[in-house]
Specification:
globular; alpha/beta; binds (S)-3-Hydroxyhexanoyl-CoA; N-(1-d-carboxylethyl)-l-norvaline Dehydrogenase, domain 2; 17 strands; 8-stranded mixed beta sheet; 2-enoyl-CoA Hydratase, Chain A, domain 1; Rossmann fold
Length: about 700
């Protein structure tokens, strides 16, 4: 008996089976909602069905409401309507969960009377990550099963729990091994009937919420006010869970709905959902057909066992891919391998890896001093010293040594990938893989497509990025590629603002109030001032006419203030602490620098800091689009979201620019071009055109 294309009803013995079949993730869109209702009616009317079983086809249980429908008028039936009918069903319903039961998907399962999960399944309410709260009863039913404190933990973090943890918490009634969800569900349905399991609806279970101490909510509010003051939905989540324990179920549900709709209207919801899709959209490179033939990558080589090379080797080992780590100096190699081990052992101490996993990963990393060991690698990533001469020599050697078809990647952040490719006789196999430090942690990977890079090579590396858990974004060749080129402009303005009269702490406060986890100068301290200083010194000594005159950052480096690692940089740090403390010594260095330049400091408003630091980025991003270095605005958004801590609730740099108003941004850029000048303020023609025609730049 077919209900609709997305939900089917059939009977197996005395069990009426409702199956959702809506690939890829069984998102609960309009078709699934109406199909669920129709299948439920059929099951209730089926005299031969004593019990109903809800299960899903494909790779997962329902992974949530259909996010693509958000922002559009909801076609009935709504999810809360469907869920109310499941809750009130006259026949018990068993939900059999495999894959991920998330958001609205888990909420449907919570409205069933018994839940069974296959081992390996994950269950969670991730709505907070989209700027929402569970809006179909999740904030009311979850506390009734797992208690309000754990429910708050789960809903505020958005992180799923394993099937085993769900069983321990009382979120599921059974965990089954082996077979399909359908088989497990049928087994449990049989036991429910035979053993007379309780099938009281979750909405009627009040024992876990009775007598909840109101201090729980006061504590969570205080914690959120401290940690996430600028986010909208977490605060509404506390209100909704509080309603679960203070109001009768129906009133609590109505309160949840009202709070959910407030979240739905918030710009943060729009921003976070843009960020969700951006992460997935960047994988589809324009002009690169989805069926482009890719090469197998079963083994990898990494050249250079420094911090970057070691981190890159870990990325592959973490994904189970064997790595040959090469360094021509045996001593550097030993140091590099030891650093990797220390890194893994630190993770194990935090409980995130077992001792056996540490050994498994170390066993995947084979140290080598001879290029001959790279001969059979399917991909080699070069992470050597940032010098064209060094890199060209390495690529010539790789060209001579590696088998035909090996992909040769450089991790350069500043050098011309095409010039490196030209050192080989196979430029079609060469591209950039620009990892961000620490490489084993940061999710961004800029995949730099050279002029001659073959489509299959690009497609292979984009797929590999996903395999190793990175967000790979294809970019073209230019100085700094996309991310650092934009960062460079922000850095230049941040420095200029301080030279004119702002303090580093003011610049940083404006950026953290905007939502960046770190201000510009805290980030400089984290990265280390000495790196840039050494490069600038080299250029000055070499008589480079474009070398900048020494600035106050260079003066700090000369005093040994390299940043966090030396306990002092733009700020000072108490031993063992990462909290930046403004320092009078730095004020004096900045004052001296201003005197030397003949600058009389002036008061700089927060608004000016905000405009100059952020609008200059938007202007540069628009130029990057004009030049085709990034193919789409969404690529730039993803780069800044995953590589530089751009606040996800603002959607991304260019998504935010549209919200801010392109007309306002262009007017300011033109004003700064007149008043300050410099190439960074020359307005982007694309930005001007979008503003003039009232056209968004991001969509
Ligand atoms: C909610 O439920 C609100 C309710 O409380 C209240 C309502 C009243 N909708 O990630 P993948 C697409 S809020 C639509 O690459 P994976 C995705 O865009 C929702 N589409 O696969 C991609 O499309 P494409 C709460 C969705 O295996 C494709 O499916 N739920 C949805 O790496 C494959 O996705 C969530 O927040 C969706 N809900 O990971 C869960 N989900 O192929 C969000 C995915 O065109 N989803 N798509 O690029 C996830 O976390 C992951 O997708 C999941 C699978 C873990 C499920």
């Amino acid at each position: 008996m077919q209900q609709n294309q997305q939900v089917h009803y059939a009977r197996s013995g005395r069990v009426g089976v409702i199956t959702v079949d809506y690939p890829p993730v069984n998102a609960v869109g309009h078709g699934v909602r109406s199909g669920l209702l129709a299948a439920l009616e059929t099951g209730l009317a089926d005299a031969d069905a004593d019990i109903l079983l809800l299960t899903c086809a494909g790779r997962t249980f329902m992974a949530g409401a259909d996010i693509r429908e958000f922002g559009k008028p909801a076609a009935p039936p709504t999810l809360p309507e469907v869920i109310a009918r499941f809750d009130a069903s006259a026949k018990p319903i068993v939900a059999a969960i495999h894959g991920t039961a998330l958001g609205g998907g888990l909420e449907v399962a919570l409205a069933c009377h018994v839940r069974v999960a296959l081992r390996g399944a994950k269950l969670g309410l991730p709505e907070v990550k989209l700027g929402l709260l569970p809006g179909a009863g999740g904030t009311q039913r979850l506390p009734r099963l797992v208690g309000p404190a754990k429910a708050l933990d789960m809903i505020l973090s958005g992180d799923p729990v394993s099937a085993e943890e769900a069983l321990a918490l009382g979120l599921v009634d059974a965990v089954e091994d082996g077979g399909s969800a359908l088989e497990a569900g049928l087994r449990v349905a049989g036991r429910v009937l035979a053993e007379g399991w309780s099938t009281r609806p979750v909405s009627a279970r009040n024992d876990r919420i009775a007598g909840t101490d109101p201090a729980l909510f006061a504590q969570r509010r205080a914690d959120l006010a401290r940690r996430l003051p600028h986010l909208f939905s977490p605060h509404r989540i506390v209100d909704a869970v509080e309603a679960a324990v203070t109001l009768p179920f129906a009133e609590g549900t109505a309160r949840e709905r009202a709070l959910f709709l407030q979240c739905m209207e918030s710009p943060q919801r729009a921003g976070l959902i843009h960020a969700f899709f951006a992460e997935r959209e960047v994988a589809k490179v324009p002009g690169l057909p989805a069926d482009t033939a890719t090469r197998d990558v079963r083994s990898v080589g990494v050249v250079g066992a420094g911090t970057m090379g070691g981190g890159i080797a870990m990325c592959f080992a973490n994904a189970g891919i064997p790595v040959v780590l090469l360094d021509s100096a045996a001593e550097s190699l030993d140091r590099g391998v030891a650093a990797i081990r220390r890194n893994y052992e630190a993770t194990a101490r935090k409980g995130r890896l077992t001792a056996a996993q540490v050994e498994e990963r170390m066993a995947l990393i084979r140290p080598a001093v001879s290029y001959a060991d790279l001969a059979d690698a399917d991909l080699v990533v070069e992470a050597a010293f940032e010098s064209m001469e060094v890199k060209r020599t390495i690529f010539q050697t790789l060209d001579r040594t590696c088998k035909p078809g090996t992909i040769l990647a450089t991790n350069t952040s500043t050098l011309d990938v095409d010039a490196i490719a030209a050192a080989t006789g196979r430029p079609q196999d060469v591209l950039g893989m620009h990892f961000f430090s620490p490489a084993n942690v940061m999710r961004l990977l800029e995949v730099v497509r050279g002029a001659k890079t073959a489509d299959g090579v690009l497609a292979t590396v984009m797929g590999l990025a996903r395999r190793i858990g990175k967000v790979g974004v294809a970019v073209g060749v230019c100085y700094g590629f996309v991310g650092n080129r934009i960062l460079h402009q922000r850095g230049r303005e941040a420095m200029a603002l301080v030279e004119e009269g702002a303090s580093p702490a003011q610049v940083d406060r404006v950026l953290t109030e905007f939502g960046f986890p770190l201000g510009h100068f805290s980030m400089t301290d984290l990265a280390g001032i000495d790196v840039g200083w050494r490069i600038r010194e080299e250029r000055r000594k070499a008589g480079d006419p474009e070398a900048q005159a020494p600035n106050w950052l260079d003066a700090l480096a000369e005093r040994g203030r390299y940043g966090q690692k030396t306990g002092a940089g733009v700020y000072r740090y108490e031993p063992g602490s990462r909290t930046p403390i403004p320092d009078l010594e730095v004020d004096a260095v900045i004052a001296e620098d201003r005197r030397r330049r003949g600058v009389t400091p002036r008061p700089v408003s927060d608004e000016e800091v905000r405009e100059r630091c952020l609008y200059v980025m938007v202007n540069e991003a628009a130029k990057i689009l004009e030049e085709g270095i990034a193919a789409r605005p969404v690529d730039i958004d993803a780069i800044w979201l995953h590589g530089y801590g751009f606040p996800a609730h603002r959607g991304g740099l260019l998504f935010w620019a549209d919200q801010e108003g392109l007309g306002k941004i262009v007017a300011a850029v033109e004003r700064y071009d007149r008043d300050i000048g410099g190439p960074q303020w020359r307005p982007s023609a694309l930005l001007q055109q979008c503003a003039a025609h009232g056209r968004p730049i991001a969509c």
